[in-house]
Write a structure and sequence with these properties.
This protein is of the alpha+beta class. It has one domain (62-439): Outer membrane efflux proteins (OEP) (Up-down Bundle). The protein is 69% helix and 8% strand. Strand 3 (295-302) and strand 4 form a beta hairpin. Helix 5 (125-191) packs antiparallel against helix 6 (197-231), helix 5 (125-191) packs antiparallel against helix 8 and helix 9 runs antiparallel to helix 10 (397-432). The chain is elongated and about 135 Å long.
């Protein structure tokens, strides 16, 4: 009995040692796996270095960069991409080998057979699966790029209303000062018999209405600040961020045709859909490989026999269910057609969005030109004339109030046109055109390139 135990140990211990060594083995990298890891590391380095901080001197660009490096939406998209890159290694790796142990026991132990076996997918299967995983990782990168663009736009979308709300408040405060001077003028006219007490009351009514409107605007600022804070990726319990003092107005230097052509080439959503077509192509190749059998090879040693008996084993799968194989291939082909249709639909949608945003920009430009060059100067002149005419008794106080209202409305129209223009410009460049934010953690700003 002792002799048998010695023989068992002489075989089992080397087998266990072999398994320990096998646990430290590494497979052969698939095509594109190394470059995918390099790109992931490069973008990860951009995410984790030069982390911005927001101060009272921060610009809108600083705020955008803060968001695209710290927003949970961006981090989640990056980790999804990282998981897909790791899946390339999983897809191209062989299944784990198996340590087997078999014995026959009757009245006594008659056979004791430790063994080892391994599964081997059919030729080309691992390469096809790795190619599909690699294509999937590429699609995940463009999902990450889209998340970066969306986050950048969300910051601008929340900043401009907040900034221009402050501009409205400034206009209202200036108008309140103007109404106070009109009230003094009405009092002076009333004292010399050229006006009535009703004029003074009208001026006071206008001031009360504007004070209430100003209070409502100040209260709504809390909502806009909460939206801006959320766009930066900050939680409610964190301190309110400083808001950039000045907006950053930009002028588009390229023509609409050039910008639209660039959008078709670099829009991250289109890139993602193009990558999904490649994923579908790879899935078709995987489905085609399923008709190739898989193999299992191994062996067992009967340590009870004298001399040892080596029992080699070999098996293979039989892919005989042709309807299943045909269905897998048909599903993969249908997936490709669906991906191509989604790409076509997105291209159509992009053309519509592009036309809409460029129209909004042109409309806002025309509105700003009209207001700044003609309407606002004339409204100010009209108010000055009305005040002078009222002072001399040529017009009643209603004319002065109407002139003041007209000037206020034109000033607010100017602010609204600025909001429309900047939001349309931001959406056109970031979401439609796919222009990345400056210093964003994207492959365009990293050294490795595919």
């Amino acid at each position: 009995m002792r002799r048998h135990l010695t023989r068992i140990q002489s075989l089992i211990f080397p087998g266990l040692a072999l398994m320990v060594l096998a646990a430290g083995c590494r497979g052969i990298s698939a095509r594109g796996e190394k470059s995918a890891r390099e790109e992931l590391a490069a973008v990860g380095g951009l995410l984790q270095t030069n982390l911005p901080s927001l101060t009272t001197n921060s610009t809108l660009r600083d705020s955008v960069l803060f968001a695209v490096k710290k927003h949970p939406q961006v981090i989640a998209a990056y980790d999804d991409w990282a998981a897909s890159v790791e899946n390339i290694t999983v897809a191209r790796s062989l299944p784990d080998p198996k340590l087997t142990f078999e014995l026959y026991v009757g009245d006594i132990l008659t056979s004791l057979m430790p063994g080892l076996e391994a599964d081997f997918p059919g030729p080309g299967k691992l390469a096809a699966r790795a190619a599909a995983a690699s294509a999937e990782s590429r699609a995940k990168y463009f999902q990450f790029a889209t998340a970066v663009q969306q986050t950048a736009f969300a910051v601008e979308k929340s900043f401009y209303p907040l900034h221009f709300l402050d501009a409205k408040l400034d206009v209202n405060r200036q108008t309140l000062g103007l109404l106070a001077s009109l009230e003094n003028l009405a009092r002076a006219q009333n004292e010399v018999g050229r006006g009535t007490l009703q004029d003074v009351l009208r001026a006071q009514i206008e001031q009360e209405k504007l004070r209430t409107e100003t209070a409502n605007l100040e209260d709504s600022r809390r909502v806009l600040l909460a939206q801006y804070k959320a766009a930066l990726g900050l939680h409610s319990e964190q301190a309110d961020p400083p808001v950039p003092v000045q907006p950053e107005f930009t002028k588009t230097k390229t023509s609409d045709e050039e910008l639209f052509a660039a959008a078709l080439k670099q829009n991250p959503r289109l890139k993602e859909l193009e990558a999904e077509i490649k994923v579908a192509d790879a899935s078709i190749r995987v489905a085609q490989k399923d008709k190739v059998p898989d193999f299992t090879a191994g062996g067992k040693v009967d340590v009870k026999a004298n001399p040892f008996v080596w029992n080699p084993q070999f098996s293979m799968t039989l892919p005989i269910w042709r309807d299943k194989l045909a269905a897998e291939l048909a599903a993969a082909q249908a997936g490709k057609r669906a991906a191509e249709a989604r790409l076509s639909a997105e291209q159509i949608s992009l053309a519509v969005d592009f036309a809409e945003q460029t129209y909004l920009i042109r409309e806002a430009d025309r509105e700003l030109t009209l207001l700044r060059e003609r309407l606002l100067p004339r409204a100010r002149q009209s108010l000055d004339v009305s005040r002078a005419a009222y002072r001399s008794g040529q017009v009643d106080f209603l004319n002065v109030i109407d002139a003041e209202r007209t000037l206020l409305n034109f000033q607010l129209d100017e602010i609204a046109a600025q909001i429309q223009r900047e939001l349309a410009r931001a959406e056109l460049s970031l979401l439609v055109g796919g222009v990345p934010p400056e210093n964003a953690p994207l492959l365009e700003n990293s050294k490795p390139a595919r």
